[in-house]
Amino acid sequence: MKKNNSAKVNICVVGAGYVGLVSGACLAEVGHRVVCVDSDPAKIKMLKKGVMPIYEDDLERVVKKNVKAGRLHFAGSIKDGMHHGGHRAEAVFIAVGTPPREDGSADLSAIEKVSEEVARNMTDYTLIVEKSTVPVATCDWINKTVKRHNKRHLPFDVASNPEFLREGTAVWDFLEPDRVVVGVSTKQAEDLMRRVYMPIKGPLVITSVKSAELIKHASNSFLSTKISFINAVANICEKTGANVEDVARGMGLDKRIGASFLKAGIGFGGFCFPKDLEAFYWLSSQVGYDFALLKTVKDINEGQKMWLVKKIEEELWNLEGKTVALLGLAFKPETDDMRFAPSLDIIRELRKRGAKVRGYDPVSQENAKKCIKGIYFAKDSYDCAKDADCVCLVTEWKEFAALDQKKLMAAAKHPIMVDGRNLYDPAKMRELGWTYKSVGRP
Ligand code: NAD
Fold this sequence. Notes:
The chain has 442 residues and is α/β, with parallel strands linked by helices. It has helices spanning 18-29, 41-48, 59-68, 78-82, 109-121, 138-149, 170-175, 187-197, 209-240, 244-252, 273-286, 292-316, 342-352, 365-371, 381-385, 398-401, 405-411, 426-432, and strands spanning 10-14, 33-37, 72-75, 91-94, 126-130, 156-160, 180-183, 204-207, 323-327, 356-360, 376-377, 390-393, 416-419, 435-438. The strands form 3 sheets. The protein has a 6-stranded parallel beta sheet, with helices on both faces. α14 (365-371) links the parallel β10 (356-360) and β11. The longest helix has 32 residues, at 209-240. Bound molecules: nicotinamide-adenine-dinucleotide.
């Protein structure tokens, strides 16, 4: 086994999804030797061929560059990943999924499985770095699990290193982070984590393991709260004639509040906010604290997704047999991710009311086909709007901002537009002849 005395760290990243693949590629980009492991053989096969299994800006370039430089590798098993090419992994990052269970708690079974496997394949001191989003005290469980399966009693540490990247700007976020949070319990773990993150600019926040775990859930829940707050304000605006965009601007200029995450719309989705909010609420209840605010944030979000359906009904009355066109299906622009996308709930409700749904997304269409049945997938925005009683903007992709509105209106049966993301200018849209509805704007 080759010994590594340089600043470069031999890293194995388990889980080559949105977080694992981006983290692995970026850690290689800053000079480390990285092996990304995934249990999905199709993903590894694609990556070995240079094909990206996910849509993420700039990822392909970074992956290909680092594969060529010999710093980034792919493996189908943790055993291979931890001992790839005769290099022993000093740090193993866990970046597998932590999906929600029925009761709102996080399903941590993949983390347990990986911990067992890592323990069985250690041959010297190993730092196990928990990167997936998990409830506080998960690292205690990893510790216990590794101890149980580490039959040779090799030394190890468990660190928490929650990830804050956003899909769509993930590569940039990883390489230029606002902060890197690292939770450690020993000096050896801290030193190794400092080596890993030394080449990356951005403040390193070193905390206890539990604090680091909590920072992630608290951050995501706070951001969700901001979104639900402005959406609640948007509802008040609608009832009083105020304009939520002006209100948000006036609020956001206050440095104590900040302008980000004050954009009214049809609610948040994706693989992070909804499940992390639920998991944080569940965890709070488990430890005996009723974090009622989080429940309200969730309720506001659920209501907000239905805002779109309500607005369509206000215009079309009964939806039975009517056609609704949805522009955008992904949970946000610049990603192909359909997990917990608001469009899924909206489509379900529209179909329940007997509406025929046409949908179009510039990037997530193929993923959408796997999880949405019974709708027509259009080839472009104009095809989507064809003969629609109402056209709805669901995801604010850049290409939708540049649509030929006259052509879109000509394709639709009626010039009715419900804009769930406040993408268009209300005055211009009305001037063009649309009956135009948007969120919290008069
Ligand atoms: P993902 O589903 O895209 O990726 C997870 C990967 O892990 C999959 O490719 C899966 O095949 C693989 N995997 C599952 N079990 C495995 C095992 N036993 N061995 C090897 N590979 C295994 O999920 P993601 O979006 O990357 O999220 C991962 C974690 O990071 C979650 O906890 C999520 O909450 C968190 N997170 C996600 C984002 C985001 O924007 N997606 C941002 C920050 C944090």
